Amino acid sequence: MKKRKNIFKVVALTVLMLFALTGCIRVEYAIKLNKNGTGSFSTVTAMEEGAYNSYVEQGTDPFEGQETKTITIDGEKYIAAEEVIVKDVDFKELSEKLLKDSEGEEMGVEESFFSSAEISKNGNKFTFKIATTGEGLDTGGMGDASEMLDMFIKVEMPGKITSQKGGKIDKNTVIFEIEDFEKKYTFEAYSTVGFALSNSLMIIVICVVAAFVVILAIVIIIVVVNAGKKKKLKTETVKEENTETEIITDTDTN
């Protein structure tokens, strides 16, 4: 199988080779979608603090020239560097940038790590879809990239996340993990801005509304029937009174 020489722009192949034996590299695609139809995309590369310090002590700074920060992941401290790729661009441009940025142009290969990317807004509903090619990653003969590198896609969705496929929800963020670079993945996330009902709650609401309509209809029917009865009774009473009046008049006349 042909593998692409690509380390997503933030992790050059030389850096991967330096870190390959440590198994302590974590790369994240950080994507944020805004409710106004724009989004941002950055890449975050993190290395376990102990391994990072060891390289620095040896005179090699893996993140030389980049601003770094210390973050904690699952109780472990990492040194991380973030590169902002695009900020507050429309969804179409963001989708195109995701595909382009995963290409291995710097390594002379133009294939994309992702086979497709779709980000859209329909009213107050938002959709994020992305799929990998499953073509693997070239490590220069140093072994399986999946064993050396932890790769994640983190998508912050606007509003409330209604469903997702292939990941885990953490508040308003969906985290997808690429565990095997030679496997095809399809990741999806959906959210709604504003009041959103789950399917079960929607059914309950519909049933309540339907019951209310039925009860209202019954009440209206009862009111109409009673009104009709009262009108009929009143008419009959008037007729009886008129009859009695006529009888009295006839008696008086006689």
Number of helices: 5
CA-based shape = elongated
Q: Please list the strands of the largest sheet in the order they lie side by side.
A: 3-4-2-1-7-10-9
Structural class: alpha+beta
Q: What is the domain total for the residues? A: 2
Mean pLDDT figure = 79
Rg of Cα set: 35 Å
**How many beta-strand runs?**
11
Strand content: 35-45%
Main beta sheet = 7 strands, mixed
Beginning-to-end CA distance, first to last residue: 124 Å
Helical fraction: 25-40%
Low-confidence stretches: 1-17, 104-110
> Which sequence of SSEs, written as H and E, runs from N to C?
HEEHEEHEEHEEEEEH
Describe the structure.
The chain is of the alpha+beta class. The chain folds into 2 domains: 13-196, no CATH class; 197-254. Helices cover 34% and strands 35% of the residues. It has 5 helices and 11 strands. The chain has helices at residues 13-19, 49-57, 91-101, 145-148, 199-253; strands spanning 25-33, 38-48, 68-73, 76-90, 114-122, 125-132, 149-156, 160-165, 167-170, 173-178, 186-192. The strands form 2 sheets. The chain has a 7-stranded mixed beta sheet. The protein has a 4-stranded antiparallel beta sheet with strand order 5-6-11-8, with helices on one face. The chain starts with 12 loop residues before the first helix and ends with a helix. The relative contact order is 0.13.
